[in-house]
Amino acid sequence: MEFLEFLGNRADDLLEMGLAHAAIVGAAVLIATVIGIGLGVATYRTERPRAMVLAITGTFLTIPSFALFILMLSPFGLGWKPVLVALVMYGLLPVVRNTITGLREVDPAIIESAKGMGLNRRQRLLRIELPLAWPVVITGVRVSTLILLGIAAIGAFVNGPGYGEIIVTGLARVGTPVAVNMILAGTLGVIVLAILFDLLFYAVQRLSTSRGIR
Questions:
Q1: For the whole model, what pTM was predicted?
Q2: Residue 129 CA to chain centroid, in angstroms?
Q3: Are residues 194 and 149 in contact, defined by beta-carbon separation less than 8 angstroms?
Q4: CA 151, CA 25: separation in Å to the nearest integer?
Q5: 171-188 pLDDT per residue, tens
Q6: CA–CA gap between residue 178 and residue 169 (Å, rounded)
């Protein structure tokens, strides 16, 4: 009951934090998706560039998030900028990997048939390969989004927006009655956003994928 009362009293603040959290993650996912699909399309045909891109984006994901946010302070200062850059870096690997995987799994017979119809490489990519690979690509975007929702909370240590603010404040007040409520409220907010984003991407996948390849 105490926790529910806390949620009621801080509802406006929690909603504002939720919108900020969703905005920073949404922006990072959008940028990571554009860059990731571009890198995947550019390298999926050639082994060495493909391995290099996967290695670099994989390395980004191994950097401890707190350390990366601190490293971003020097060029970008406090606020949303270092958080956005770090989140884009973390979000690249699932998108790049799934784009490459989806494009490489397109049946070669289909590509040969498209060549026989007179389609050039660009036309084959846009009309045949990407649509067939799209379910795999969008799955990578969904995975990236769920990863970033959790990491974004750590951005509060560099004054980033979102639920991390209330979580960090709660951690600073450990031992007081309100600390647990603050941490739980922030954590619950991230979980709710994860569910909403996942439902959104499920709907996007259903609407943007032709029935024949669902």
A1: 0.91
A2: 23
A3: yes
A4: 9
A5: 888 888 888 999 999 999
A6: 10
